């Protein structure tokens, strides 16, 4: 990527997130005049549907009401990414950046349209190269120290979504949310960041297998940016995904970079994240 003026970064948010989370990173990239676009996956961002009692006192039905996102599929999410990539193919370099759970739909998008992606960057993100479902890694022994398990509400299968409560007033719950996602975010900004989260992640995103091939996804150069103090996807899990993908696709091994801090560097250190992206590979 010698001429960054011809490169565009396509950002895809993780679970419960939205395109707006990338704004500070995009501003950091705009300084050196690098273009970027952030995608809202179906059911995320400002248009995310909320459980009917979510904003009411006591949040009635939050544990049992079926999610409006129950029918959102992995195909739907990948299609939203591919649609964005097609509109950007006039750039000479298109770099797809996936955070966390977005690794599944981003990988599927790249598998389906490898001609639209020049490099794919996984930011502490799920890589289905070795195991096809995000749940396969979340349940691995290497992930045993991960925080955040106490955030999940109700029965995900019945809800059709992995549900959390960013508006919780329970101090213990709020602290687990902070520790898992934003532990290094200044206290006076944490409240704003947790308010950017929506309650439902379509169950299909962590549960649907993503099958990759050497001739399509496997031909795309890839970078993994490790978050060194990630508490919801520990470095042991990140390294396991990297190692298993490299073993399955040895012709295009990961370039690996490490940045300090939590699972959400776009919240705490967007300039460092932007510099890491500009240096990929």
What does this structure look like?
The chain has 281 residues and is an alpha/beta fold. It has one domain (4-278): Alpha/Beta hydrolase fold, catalytic domain (Rossmann fold). The chain is 32% helix and 14% strand. It is built from eleven helices and eight strands. The strands form two sheets. Strands 2-1-3-4-7-8 form a six-stranded parallel sheet, with helices on both faces. A two-stranded antiparallel sheet has the order 5-6. The relative contact order is 0.18.
Q: What is the residue-averaged pLDDT? A: 95
CATH superfamily: Alpha/Beta hydrolase fold, catalytic domain
How many helices? 11
Portion in beta strands: 5-15%
How many whole angstroms does the radius of gyration measure?
A: 18 Å
CATH topology: Rossmann fold
Number of domains: 1
How would you summarize the topology of this molecule?
Layout: E1 7-12, H1 23-30, E2 35-39, H2 74-87, E3 93-99, H3 103-112, E4 119-123, H4 134-138, H5 156-159, E5 161-163, H6 171-181, H7 187-194, E6 200-202, H8 204-207, E7 222-227, H9 235-248, E8 255-259, H10 265-268, H11 270-278
Parallel strand pairs: 1-2, 1-3, 3-4, 4-7, 7-8
Antiparallel strand pairs: 5-6
Helix pairs in contact: 1-11, 2-3
């Amino acid at each position: 990527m010698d001429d960054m003026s011809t490169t565009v970064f396509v950002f895809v948010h993780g679970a419960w997130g939205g395109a707006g989370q990338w704004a500070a990173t995009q501003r950091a990239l705009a300084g050196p005049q690098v273009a970027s676009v952030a995608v809202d996956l179906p059911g995320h961002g400002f248009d995310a549907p909320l459980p009917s009692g979510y904003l009411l006192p006591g949040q009635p039905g939050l544990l049992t009401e079926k999610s409006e996102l129950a029918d959102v599929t992995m195909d739907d999410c990948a299609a939203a990414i591919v649609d964005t990539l097609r509109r950007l193919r006039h750039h000479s370099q298109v770099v797809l950046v996936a955070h966390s759970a977005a690794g599944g739909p981003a990988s599927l998008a790249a598998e389906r349209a490898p001609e639209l992606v020049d490099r794919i960057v996984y930011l502490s993100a799920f890589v289905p190269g070795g195991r096809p479902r995000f749940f396969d890694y979340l349940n691995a022994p290497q992930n045993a120290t991960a925080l955040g398990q106490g955030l999940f509400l109700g029965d995900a299968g019945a809800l059709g979504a992995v549900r959390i409560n960013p508006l919780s007033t329970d101090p213990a719950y709020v602290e687990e949310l902070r520790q898992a996602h934003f532990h290094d975010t200044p206290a006076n900004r944490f409240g704003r960041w947790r308010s950017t989260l929506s309650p439902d992640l379509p169950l299909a995103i962590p549960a649907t297998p993503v099958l990759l091939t050497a001739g399509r996804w496997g031909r795309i150069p890839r970078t993994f940016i490790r978050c060194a103090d990630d508490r919801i996807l520990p470095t042991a899990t990140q390294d396991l995904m990297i190692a298993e993908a490299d073993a399955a696709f040895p012709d295009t091994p990961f370039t690996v970079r490490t940045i300090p801090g939590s699972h959400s560097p776009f919240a705490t250190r967007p300039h460092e994240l932007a510099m890491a992206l500009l240096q990929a590979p």
